Each structure stands twice: as structure tokens, then as C-alpha cells.
Amino acid sequence: MSNPKFKYAPISVFLFPFYNLACGILLCTDGDDSLYPIAVLIDELRNEDVQLRLNSIKKLSTIALALGVERTRTELLPFLTDTIYDEDEVLLALAEQLGNFTMLVGGPEYVHCLLPPLESLATVEETVVRDKAVESLRKISQEHSPVDLEVHFEPLVKRLASGDWFTSRTSACGLFSVCYPRVSSTVKAEIRQHFRTLCSDDTPMVRRAAASKLGEFAKVLELDYVKSDIISLFTALASDEQDSVRLLAVEACVSIATLLPQEDLETLVMPTLRQAAEDKSWRVRYMVADKFSELQKAVGPEITKNDLVPAFQNLLKDCEAEVRAAAANKVKEFCENLPEDSRETIIMTHILPCVKELVSDTNQHVKSALASVIMGLSTILGKDNTVEHLLPLFLAQLKDECPEVRLNIISNLDCVNEVIGIRQLSQSLLPAIVELAEDAKWRVRLAIIEYMPLLAGQLGVEFFDEKLNTLCMAWLIDHVYAIREAATCNLMKLVEKFGAEWAQNTIVPKVLGMANDPNYLHRMTTLFCINSLSEACGQEITTKQMLPVVLKMSNDQVANVRFNVAKSLQKIGPVLDSSALQTEVKPVLEKLATDTDMDVKYFAQEAISGEFSSINVLTE
Amino acid sequence: MSIIATATEKVDGFTRKSMRKAQKQKKSQGSSQFRTQALTELSPLPQLKDAPSTEQQELFSQKLQQCCMLFDFMDSVTDLKSKEIKRATLNELVDYVSTNRGVLVETAYPEISNMICTNIFRTLPPSDNPDFDPEEDEPTLEASWPHIQLVYEFLLRFLENPDFQPSIAKRYIDQKFVLQLLELFDSEDPRERDFLKTVLHRIYGKFLGLRAFIRKQINNIFLRFIYETDHFNGVAELLEILGSIINGFALPLKAEHKQFLMKVLVPMHTAKGLALFHAQLAYCVVQFLEKDPILTEPVIRGLLKFWPKTCSQKEVMYLGEIEEILDVIEPTQFKKIQEPLFKQISRCVANPHFQVAERALYFWNNEYILSLIEENIDKVLPIMFGSLYRISKEHWNPTIVALVYNVLKTLMEMNSTLFDELTASYKSDRQRVEVEASCYGDASLRQDLGNWSGLGEG
């Protein structure tokens, strides 16, 4: 402990037995203390405390940098490979680190040194660790030269693919696609064979992993092999006995269909897709519904017209609500992507009747999924159709018993506004808004408040004053703080929209009136409103109307109000001119700074130092 | 399974209560059957017992076919007559196979199997409550239970019939049958899982050729549960069956079985819903250890690796399981594991959650554990001493302090010389660290002091 710099840091070095690596560092660097912290880090890789091991692993690149490329390769990596039995948290950090280690082992030439520890990590049970190891392996595969890829990387993939325990085989599934494009044709054939084997593995976990990588693997294969190999695997996985495997094949279907020429789709893909859309498991049908837009794009307009339209109708009428909801979510996208020449006819004759039924579905999730997209149809169908066919549906949904459905309609009003103008809806809109504004659940109230500025913009100031202003003011005295807070913020946005003059006539008097409310929470709301309104209202209104009220409130009997006065004064300070600050604000703050209440004093002092320190400089 | 991310939750975090209320009104749900057949009204057939024996077989087969008709139980007003006919027929069939001899002729097997498969094998519907918490929420019951129950009943009577011939039945009760049966264990309806448990147990008993397959598929379900979905309703039931399967394992244990213990049962302790099946799980583990004591060390090391870090409720369960294991441990195995184990126990004893501390301290009420500790007092006492000594002075809960005093007394009686030495060195160490900390005023040393007082917490 000769060097005072390290007086305490290396305690653990002395408490725990050295092992050769740390020891080696110390021996070879005697006289050079700069590696001392590194020795500690290395030592902590074996500490009993997980947190210390974890910290140390996270600094692994520092250790490697200090050791140099050669010792990293010959000592650090073998050591890490040995200690793979550890807490999953440590392993996860290790797996991540090793993905960025290429330069630290000496560049692409030596990158294969990283394979042994990552190989072990790719076989552990914990999914997150394994996935991270695979991610790192995929990353460093790019840094391998084609030769190294065949000599080092591909054998690793093969070992994993034929491992005893399912974990290594699942990991292998993610590695085929990264090495396939860069190896010789013999090796390619082997890789295809391994992938085939894993697709029919008897462990469902492995089949799931293979199915989820099928699309990705298909993308790197030559088209002939896609047709000969991938299609048969796809068909087999899509009729697997486990629905968890079958549903993953649906995902692959998108990539595969994109790769194939149009004329092959009918024979190679469609039979499987049709079968999936009518699968006996709702999970598979749900997946089809969920991927419907992607599928639609992948198979092209002709097949869409002939096959997907009826399939979509069936999904919208499915016996499971989850499936219907997933399909309802896709209504707009599906209609948008229909071929233009027949779009309107298809929508009017095939889709709209199903949509009409969904409006009165028994399940609220289905209805609310529909409500979130249905407004989008108006832009596709144009004004007349919207008025005739969609408007009744919007109106029905605005009266839905479930608040979420109404909210979803209101939140998408802008789409309709562009097509037919919002006034068409105002008769039904208003009762819906009022009801939501008074909903028993505060989060519903909160959600509708957030749409107020948008609605105000679309409905115009007159309509607003007449119908909605009272609501906005009522929220200010809501019994939930979050609503009062949102209401003040809403007022600010309204003022930004309608201007200071409007504010002066409609809101400011009411807000200031609350300063005399017997309830101190309402009095505080006045202050909060002033905080957010002052800037939008400008100097004149703030100085002439708001400031006197704030100053008067400094005599409030409730301390919370008083210290909020101090906070408000600080907040509106920048809007006021300096003479008002000096003559009116400063004395009040100084008085508050001598208040009996500790918090009032504190915030008054805060305000003084926050506001006047800079101003003093200016005036002096 | 939260497939629809309920937008209601985005809007209001407090809707769950109201959703639950709604749930209580509507607790049952239909099975997700993709109906293709058109419903035709059933007409009653004559009673089997009234038919002449020459026609009984034919009538039996007709009745089986009649029972293949499925009904929508979510709609409680339609097909009432047909539903009643099917119910009565199923009852009659149950009665027929359980009381009569010689009815299970070879030609009946495919029809029986067909009737059973059509009725019970179905994709389970999505859960009504996406964040179904089995400990808190009422399960959703199967709407068509009035029929399904009788089909299960029939299946059991069929399997238990003295004339039942596995050699014929294995053509129908095959791997695919078992696979579908196992998937049904995810049913939210506890009544159904209970039937399934008995059925699977009978099948495992009667079909030797399916045993390995059943074990392997259970293995897969568990792995999926642990590493992929974290959700499966029938874990407890499957473990219960496994308990009796493990009981019958021949010695020496096959590698496959050991792997199952280490790679499935031990990691299963990490599951979120451990409380739902811990009793069954611990039973399986102890069964294994009783079969092959050599496995004790790796199992305990596994439990220590997965020891809960923040969930006190789970920690109490782990401690319970450790005690069950210690109850059957061999002294030689105890020696191998005592150090890491007692380091953990010492941490538990010092746990501020009194139930954890209390559960750990109860070990000292166990005669067998006491004898093991006494034999190894020179190893155990130094590990436990710091925690116990400190807790006796500091724990907030008087019950714990009282228990600790008793434990300290017991330990002192086991080896008073060692106890005195430890007391002396504990005090002097503490003093030394305090002095050093005050001299240097250094953070790292104060940290060190902290570690001292939390001895064993590192």
C-alpha cells in the first residue's frame, strides 16, 4: 500500500485469494500502478457478490484493453469460457459484451476466438441469455472472413444444431441465415439439411425457433431452393400438431410470398394460407388477422380480390372476439390497400356489411378496435358514401355504452373533418363529450380533456363558447388533482388557439373568481392556472389582472396557498416588467420570506434568489 | 394471455375491479369450437337396458354417435330438448360401461374414441381476463360442463372397465390423443383439470408404450411454461401425476430422469406463480432425493442459485422445501452442502421480514436437523454466529428475538468453547472496524463496517 492512491481500493485483492490472471497482472506490472484497478476488476470477476461480478463484466472491455489483444485471447477468453456457470444476469452482460469484442481480440483476423464462450452461452437455459448470445454471434459472424466462416463459424452452427439439449438447437436456428450467403455451395447444402432437420425436431421449442426463422432463412436462399426446400418446410410447419408452431408459420408466410413470383403463389402458398385462415385454433386465426395487411401486400391485388376478401370477411365474423378485434383493427389498412379499380365496390358490398355488424358486437374490445380505425374509411369512400353509410355508424358508436369506444371515435375526428366537416356530427358529438367529461373514471375524463384543444380547433370558437366552455371550467374544480392539472394545461392550449383577448373575456374572470373560493384547493387552482396562462396572455393581462390577485393571496390563511403564491410569483416573473417586480412582487416575497411556516419561507427565498439575482445585476 | 392489449387499461388503470365484477356475473365461457356441422335435432332412442341383447351393441353405437353432436352452451335457450337428450344418453352410457360386462367389443373402440375426441378435444378459448391471476381471480368455468363432465366420466369408466384391453385401445389412445389431452390441462376450469389428472394417470398406468412419450411431453410443457409463456393452468396437476411417476422409477435413475430434475424441476422454482404448485413441486423433488441421495448437492445448489431476491412469500416456500429436503438428507450429503446452505440460512434469519426469519429459525425445532448441526457445529456455528448475534440485538420483531435467543442457547450448549471464542472475536472485530472507520473517515471502510454488521449479507 505504498501508493496512497490505492490505499483502499484494492481491499478485495487482499481479502480474497488471487488467481493467476490477476496475479499475473500484478507481477508483470510491478512498478506500474496504473494496472492496479484492472487487477481489482479481474479479481472481482470471481467475487462472491453478484453485483460486483456484474459490474466487473460490464467493464470487460476496459479489462481487455488493459491486457492487450494477445493476453485477452490467451488468458481472458479461456478464463471467461471456464466460468460460464454463473448467475443469468452476469451471463447476459457477458453475452452482450462479447458481441463488441472484435477489436479487443485483435480485429477480424482473430474474431473467431470469441466463438467458444459465446457457444457455451448459446446453450444455457435462460432465454434472454441465449438470445443475447445469438445476437452477438450474428453480429460477429459479419466480421469473419469467408474462410474463417467455414473453418470456425459454420462448425459451431453445426455443433449447436446437433446438440443434445434443446437449447443449443434453438440457438442454431438463428444462425443459419447469417452464414449461408457467404459459404461454398457444399457447405450451403449442409446448412439447408440442418435447417430441415430442425424444422422437424421432436421438441416443439426447437420447431418454434425454426418456424420463427423460416422467413429470414428463405430470404437468403436461392429462389430454386425456396421453391424446393422452404415451401415443403413451410407446409409442414403450418400443419404442425401444436398451434404455437402453426401460428409462427403465418409470419413466415409473409416473407415467403414476397420472394416468390406471382404465378407460383397460387400453388405454393395459397393452400397453406387458406388453411391457416380457417385453422381450428383461434390463435392461428388471430395471427392471420394480425398479419393481414402484410399478407395482403405480399400476395398482390389479384389474390387479394379472390381470396383475401372472403377470408377477411370470415375473420370479421369469427366466433372468437380476439380474432374479430384483430381483424377489426385492420379494416382501414385492408381497405386502403385494395386495388383502386375495385376498391369501392369491394368495400361497399363485402366489407361494410361486416363492419355494420361489428358496431353492435357483444364484445367491447371488438367495438373499440373498430372505433379506432373506422373513421379512416371516410377518406377512402369520399363524402357521399361517408354521409350515407358511415355517418350512422359513427353516430351509433358515439352513443356506445363503453366509454372507450366513444373516446376512440372522438380521438379520430380529424379524418372525418377533412371529408365532411365535423358539424355533421356535432349534434351527437356534444352529448358524447359531455357524458365522457362527467365519466366516473378519472382517466376517461383525462382522455377527453386531452382532445379538447383539437375539438375546439375543429368546432370553432363560437360553438366552443356556447357548449364546451362550461365543461372546461368545471374540470378546474374536479376532485382529482390530475384532472385539475390537465384542465389548467388545456386552458393554456385554448388560449394559444383563440388568443389573449378571448382569454380575457371568457376564462380569466372565472379563473380569478376562484381565488375567493372557500376551498383552498380551488384557490390553489387559480394559482396553477395563472402559472400556465400568464405567458400566453401576455404582459398586460398578467400585470393588470392576474398579479393583484396573486399578491392578495399572499395573505391566505392556508400555508400551501401562500407558498404557491411564492412559486407563482417566481413563475410569472419573466412576464412582468421590472418595475412591477421591484415595487409589487419583491415586498410580498420578502414578507413571505419571514413567514412562520417553514415551507413558505423556503419557497419565498427560492423565488427571491431565482428572480432577483439576475435582475439586480441589470439594475445596478 | 394478453392478446388484446386492453385499451381500457390505457385509459383507466382502475377498471380491473369493475371488470372483475362483470366477470363474476359471467363466469363461464364456451369452448372455441370452429363449428362446421349443422345442428339437427336429436330424437330420443330406446333405453339400452330395454333392448334385446342382440340389438344392444347396435344401439350402443347409435348412442355414441348421437353424443358426437355438440351444442352451444353460451346460448342457454336454444336446443334445450336436444341438450337434455344428450345429457340423459351420456348418463346412460356411463352407467352402461360401468355396470355391464362384455360390452367393450373390439368394434366399439373406434366409436367410443371418436365420441370422446369430438367432445373433449377443442382449442381452449382465450382467457376472458387477460391478466388472470389464479390466486386472486375466480376461474372461468367451462360452459358446456354439463356434457363434458359426463364424457370425462365415461372415459374414466371406459378405462377402468375390467374388459378394457389396452392392446386394442392403443390404436386410438395414441400419441396424438395424449398430446391433445395434455393441452387441455391448460383449462381454467379446475373441475376439468381434476378429471384430466385422473384420466392421464390411468392412461400412464395402462399404456406402457406411451409412458416415455407422456413424460417427454410433460417435460416440453414445463419448459415452455418456464422459459416461454410463464402461463399454464395445469402445472400443479401434472406435477401431482409426476410425483407418483417418480415414485415408481427404477434404480439407478436414468440420465433422462436426472436431467428432468435438474433442468426442469429445479428451474421451475423461478416461476411467478410458484405458490400454486409449490407443494407438488417440492414433493417431486423430495421423491427424487429419496431415490438417489447423490442428487442432493446439485439440487440444493440449484435452489440456492435461484433463491428469491425480493419475494418474501417465495422465500418462505423455499425454506419449507429446504426443510423437507433436510428431513431426508444423508449426513454425508449434508457435509457437502452445509457451507453455502447455512450462508443462505444465515441471511434468511437476518431477514427483516419476520415470516422469513421465523421460517428459517423453525429449523432449530427439527430434531433431525439439530442432530446434523450438532455433528457439524464447528462449520455451522461460525457461519450463523454473526447474523444470530446481531439479530438478537437488532431485530424489530420480539418473537424473532425470542426465537434467536433460544437458537443461540442451543448452539452454545452444542459447543460452548467455540461459542465463547466467536463472541470474543465478533466483539473485537467490530471494535476494530469501528476504530478504523473513525480514524480514516473513509467511505470504503464504513462500507466495510456495514458489511460486518450485515455479516453474511454480502
TrEMBL record, chain A:
Pfam families: HEAT (PF02985), PPP2R1A-like_HEAT (PF22646), VPS15-like_hel (PF22956). Belongs to the phosphatase 2A regulatory subunit A family. InterPro entries: 2AA_helical, ARM-like, ARM-type_fold, HEAT, HEAT_type_2, PP2A/SF3B1-like_HEAT, PP2A_Regulatory_Subunit_A. Residues 114-295 form the Phosphatase 2A Regulatory Subunit A helical domain. This is Protein phosphatase 2, regulatory subunit A, beta a. HEAT repeats lie at residues 37-75, 114-152, 191-229, 230-268, 269-307, 308-345, 351-389, 390-428, 429-467, 507-545, 546-584. Residues 301-382 form the Phosphatase PP2A regulatory subunit A/Splicing factor 3B subunit 1-like HEAT repeat domain. It comes from Esox lucius (Northern pike). The keyword Ligase does not apply. Keywords: Repeat. GO terms for cellular component: cytosol; nucleus; protein phosphatase type 2A complex. One of its GO terms (molecular function) is protein phosphatase regulator activity. The keyword Repeat applies. It comes from the Eukaryota.
Automatic annotation (TrEMBL), chain B:
Residues 17-27 have a biased composition (Basic residues). GO terms for biological process: signal transduction. Residues 15-37 are annotated as: Disordered. GO terms for molecular function: protein phosphatase activator activity. SUPFAM superfamilies: ARM repeat. Pfam families: B56. GO terms for cellular component: cytosol; nucleus; protein phosphatase type 2A complex. Belongs to the phosphatase 2A regulatory subunit B56 family. This is Serine/threonine protein phosphatase 2A regulatory subunit.
